[in-house]
Design brief:
This protein is an all-alpha fold and about 280 residues long. The chain is built from 14 helices and no strands. About 65% of the residues lie in helices and about 0% in strands. Helix 4 crosses helix 11, helix 9 packs across helix 10 and helix 11 runs antiparallel to helix 14.
């Protein structure tokens, strides 16, 4: 299968990709530059599309200073704690599940794996009500458990690990077993050290999933002590008015923080997706 735009000359292809990237990044740039404008200038030139739309007449840090209040800093801390906890638990749980699907033969394995695949194809909104009833039954509402535990197991991450472990010859594990290794030692000392790109990709996906989470934290943990970044951003708007400058500044901070792990692990992400056989 030929890559998109492969038929174009090299220079024209790069120019086309640059224009596409510019079109995708332009809204983010406008949000960032609007967070540095005075409030009365944010939408002054928005309707008249021109250079003034993207080049401010004056700059101010008042929106950024206002956004970085104690409440928003706490929300950032909550999101970081939830995201890193989900990553740590998610890598362990999903890699163990992927190892089991790849290495062991047990009754119902195919049916169970199909259910795992179906789980990440199902819209999250379809599961919110039963999930909330379960969390409330366990007494986890308004707690970090409600924010972390439902997102630990991921059908897609299990699929990624399973696809990687399938590529490891089973004879390697059988030789380890003959030498007296337990299955845990075969998993931890043989399989896991080989999964660097998959771990990086899974960590990135779990981190971004929790960093951008809004609906579930709003439902399950809306108490002030457990507010996360996306909920804190939304609170710049109410029925009467919207603090656009503060919202743009808070959103810019959230985007810039999310870019750090993405830029660090993007090459592993692409490599893992390709190796997993996803077109």
């Amino acid at each position: 299968m030929r890559a998109p735009l492969a038929w174009l000359p090299t220079g024209l292809r790069y120019l086309t990709m640059a224009l596409i990237a510019l079109a995708l990044l332009l809204p983010l740039y406008w949000m960032l530059i609007s967070s540095l404008r005075p409030s009365d200038e944010i939408f002054r030139y928005a309707a008249d599309f021109g250079w003034r739309t993207f080049v401010p007449e004056s700059l101010t840090l008042e929106h950024w200073i206002g956004a970085l209040d104690a409440g928003y800093l706490r929300a950032i801390g909550n999101s970081l704690f939830v995201a890193f906890s989900t990553v740590a638990l998610g890598i362990l749980v999903n890699s163990l599940a992927g190892f089991a699907f790849a290495v062991f033969d047990f009754p119902g394995r195919t049916v169970l794996f199909v259910c795992v695949l179906a789980s990440f194809m199902m819209p999250f909104e379809a599961m919110v009500l039963p999930l909330y009833h379960l969390v409330r039954f366990l007494g986890w509402t308004d707690s970090y458990k409600a924010l972390i535990m439902p997102e630990v197991a991921s059908g897609f991450i299990i699929f990624l690990f399973r696809q990687f472990f399938v590529g490891i010859p089973k004879e390697l594990f059988e030789a380890a077993r003959i030498d007296g290794a337990t299955w845990w030692q075969a998993y931890w000392r043989i399989a896991m050290p080989l999964t660097g790109p998959t771990i990086a990709t899974a960590s990135l996906m779990l981190f971004i999933l929790q960093w951008e989470a809004f609906f579930w934290p709003l439902v399950a943990a809306s108490a002030p002590d457990y507010v996360v970044v996306q909920v804190a951003i939304a609170r710049h708007s109410n029925l009467e008015t919207t603090d656009w400058g503060g919202m743009f500044a808070a959103s810019s901070i959230a985007v810039l923080m999310a870019l750090i792990p993405f830029l660090a692990f993007q090459r592993y992400y692409v490599r893992t997706i390709v190796q997993s056989g996803i077109k």
